[in-house]
Amino acid sequence: MTVWVIAAFAVYMLGMMIIGISSAKKNKNADDYFIGGRNLGGWVAALSAQASDMSGWLLMGLPGCVYAYGTNQAWIAIGLFIGTVLNWLFISGRLRRYTIKAGNAMTIPEYLSNRFKDEKHILMAISAIVIVVFFLVYTASAFSAGGKLFDGLTSLDYHQALTLGAIVILAYTFLGGFLAVCKTDFIQGMLMLVAILTVPIIAVMLMGAGNIIPNLVDSDLGVDANIFLNIMYENGEPISIKSIASQLAWGLGYCGMPHILVRFMAVKDEKELSKSKKIGIVWVLLSLSVACVIGVIGRAYLFPTILSTENGTHENVFIEMIKKVFMEDTNLPFIGGLFLCGVLAAIMSTADSQLLVSSSSVAKDLFKGVFFKNLTEKQMLIISRVTVIVVAIIAYIIAWNPNSSIMLLVSDAWAGLGSAFGPTILLSLYWKKINIPGAVAGMVSGGLTVIIWDYIKFIEMNGEMVTLGTYTGIYSLLVGFFLSLALIVIVSLVTPKVSDEIIQEFEDVKNGNL
C-alpha cells in the first residue's frame, strides 16, 4: 500500500479518535453514555441507525454474494429495504414514545422490563444475555471484515490487520460512548454513501459500458450471462419460492435489532424523527441498490482477475475495484485511500454500536438491574467500559480464523437477534394482551430456534451430519420469527391477563398521551 493510502487511513482514524476523546468530556452520567441524553438530531439519528445497521456486510458481503452467485442474491436487499421502511414507519415513533412512558428506559432490556412491570427482572436478564451472545458473533463479523480489509491493503497478515482494526474501534467506543458512536456513524454513513455511488460509475467509465456483458461472459460465470443477471434464476434454474422467502426474511430482523432501535429511542423529538425517516429510507434504497450493482460491475471490471469463493476473496470485490480504479487506472492513491476508508467506515460503524449496546446490557441491565441495584453512575460507567473490552476480546477470538465468512457470521447474528426480539418488540408496541410469560416464551424460543437451526448438526445428508439450515435451505430467521410470534400469542392467551395499569399505559402511548 502506498504512502498516500496510509496517509488517508491515518487521517481518517485520527479523526475518529478525536471525536471519541471530545465526546468523552460530555458524558456526565450513564444516560449520556448509553443514549446521548435523548438529544440526537434527525440527520445524525438516520445515518447513525443505517450505518450501524449495514456494517462491512454492505460493501463486502452483499456485493461478494452477487459477484459469485448472481443477481438472485438481490432478494436479500429487497427484503432489507422493505424491513427498513416498515421499521421507520411503524416501530420508530411508537418505540420512542413507549420508552419515555415506560420509566424513561435507556436500553431495550430496560424497556421490556418496565413495559411489563417485571418486578423480578426476568425479561431484563434474558434479553441482556441474548444481546451479549449474538452481538459477540455480530461484532466478530465486523472485526473479520476489518482484518480482511487491512490484510488486502498492507503488508500485514490477517491476524495483525485484525488486531489493528479492533484496537481503533475499541478505543473511541471505550472513551466516547453513545455520542461518539453516533457522531462517527454520521460521518461514516456519508463516507459509505459517497464511496458506493462513485466507484462503480468511474469503473464503468474506465471499462466502457459496452464491455460489461462480454467481460461477464468471459469471466467463467458457470451459467449464461442473461441468467446471471436475472433475479428470477438461481444456479441456472428458476429460483424457488423457498429461496425467495428465505432471502426476503432478512427484513423481519429489523424490529429486533437493539443497536438500531436504540437510535429511535435517542432522537430529540417527533419532528426530528420524521426527518430521520425520510433520510434513512433514501439512504438505504441507494446503498442497497448500488451494492448489488457493484457485484455485477466488479465481476466485469476486474476481469481477467476472478475472485474465489473458496477462500472468501469474492467478498473483497469492492476493495479490489477501488484499488484498480485509483491505484492502477488513474494513479490517484490518496483518493483511493479515502474511498477505502468508506469500507472501513462500514465496518467500524457497526462494531462500535454493538460494543456499546453489549456494554449497556451488562452494566445497566444485568449488574444494576438484576444483581446490584445500588450501583452508582460512576460504577456503571466503569463496568460498561470493562464490558466493551471483554466483548471485543471474545469477538476478536471468534474472528481469528482468516477464512471466516462475513456473510455467514452476520446471517447467524441477524437471525438470532431478529427471532428473539423482533416479535416481542412488535407485539409489545401493538398488542395490549401480551404479558411476561408470553414475552419470555417468545424470546427464548426465537433465540434457541436459531441456535439449533444453524449450529447443531444432527441430520445426515450425503453421508455427513448437517444442520437443519443446511438440510432445508430455509433461513433460520424465517422459522424463528414466526415460531416466536406464535408462542407469544398462545402463551399470553392461556396465562393470567395483564394489569389495568399496563393496559392504561398502552392506551396512553397509542393515543400520544405521554
Commentary on this structure:
The chain is an all-alpha fold and 514 residues long. It has 20 helices and 4 strands. The strands form 2 sheets. Strands 1-2 form a two-stranded antiparallel sheet. It has a two-stranded antiparallel sheet with strand order 3-4. Helix 4 crosses helix 11 and helix 16 (406-430) packs parallel to helix 19. Mean pLDDT is 80; it is low at 32-37. The chain has helices spanning 3-24, 30-35, 42-69, 74-101, 108-115, 122-153, 158-207, 212-218, 225-228, 241-248, 258-266, 270-302, 317-329, 333-371, 377-398, 406-430, 436-455, 468-472, 476-494, 500-511; strands spanning 233-234, 237-238, 459-461, 464-466.
Structural class: mainly alpha
Shape: globular
What's the tally of helices? 20
The separation of the N and C termini measures 56 Å
Portion of residues in beta strands equals under 5%
What is the makeup of the main sheet?
A: 2 strands, antiparallel
- From the alpha-carbon coordinates, what is the Rg to the nearest angstrom? 22 Å
Query: SSE order, as H and E?
Result: HHHHHHHHHEEHHHHHHHHEEHHH
Short descriptors:
single chain, about 525 residues, mainly alpha, two-stranded antiparallel ribbon, 20 helices, 4 strands
